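Marked as duplicate of an earlier ticket. Keeping the data here for the record.
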Amino acid sequence: MLQALVRAIQLPDLRRRVLFTLGMLIVFRFIAHIPVPNINPDSLQQLRDALASNQLAQLLNIFAGGALQNFSVAAMGVYPYITATIIMQLLQPLIPALQELQKEGEQGRQRLTRYQVILTIPLAFLQAYGQTLTLERTINPTGDPFQSLFRSPFDLVNNFFPTFTILVSMVAGTMLLVWLGEQINERGIGQGISVIIFGGIVSGLPGLLVQGWQISSTGDVGTILGLIGFLVIGLVTIVGIILIQEGQRRLPVQYAKRVRGNKVYGGQSSHIPLKVNMAGMIPLIFAQSIIIFPGIVASWFYREGEPGIGNAIAGFFYNTFNPTGVGGGFVYISLLFLLTVGFTYFYTMVLFQQQDIPDNLQRNGGFIPGIRPGKNTEIYLKRVLNRITLAGALFLGLIAVLPFITQSVTGLQLGLGSTALLIVVGVAVDTMRQLESQLIMRDYEGFLSR
């Protein structure tokens, strides 16, 4: 890895790409500290305290790169764009026009990307309003103007223009981050949106190191052993993520010979790489978002100690879908694990259908030895994919519940969650792979030029 970085810096073109990517990350960090209009600075500490106890807000803060705790114009990060991308991927098997665009190559993909950007705007407005209203009610449940996040009430009906200005600034911040991601795709190294998320998570590492140093400086033997255990679990998790992310099953493919005039085409052998974790981190996001939602809604209506059937029902959902709720920890963790496994299978099948591997093989004269082309090939590929996806699904389920296991084993709760770790390692590996491919391409160019 270090050798590849040194070689990349020595090549002028790659050096420009690497420096451009770093420059975009610096711009992103500046944007992450620009507050929205009308913010009340005195309430930011209350916001950070609320984030520490609100799991949905913690998840959104990850995708915002820590900008949510400052309530900057980038407080939503690129999460609306990720949501739009997922929606477009789920709609492609259902809408024939989108399927045709997917098959049109680079031009079709550019149109799909344009549709994703357009869909991001209304989704960003909805998320900006819902997210801001939820945080406002969390830190200011009584409506006290002195405890509010803003200097004037956040109310679209009675205080339209200041509230609409806040929403527009947050949507503009998200679209600016999406534009930065596109610039990284074109002129930098790595997948732009993922690199933006990566930069936000990594920016929190110094604070995590300081937190670990403060814990170790207490001198308590049990605490120090817990910190060592946390580091060991973290290193083992990183190794596991790399092995699962890079793991694949290679199915041999043979292409039939075709004679056209005096030339013979085909006849070569290749393989189909089926990844162990084709779905990536998306199932984990799905599962966490869904299982958190009932508890968040219930928290709006639940008042501890108050009588009434409605309050009792809200209390049941609040405690059940809350890992720290009374009697809800085991149920929450079990449901999170099962949902992650289920969504991994679901999203893997969606991606497999979009790739249309059996039809592509048949059109190009390819076949898997011992398997008839067409329907039999599709059945065989699905059977193999179901087997290898089991390992990826169980691993993602383990990653989802790993923070609770780590906390129970070490007794510590540090700021770097397993979801953030999965994103950081996955993006780092993918970026290094792209860098190595760029180096190989330039080596070939140098060889041909000689």
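See parent ticket for discussion. The CA atoms of residues 74 and 201 lie 14 Å apart.
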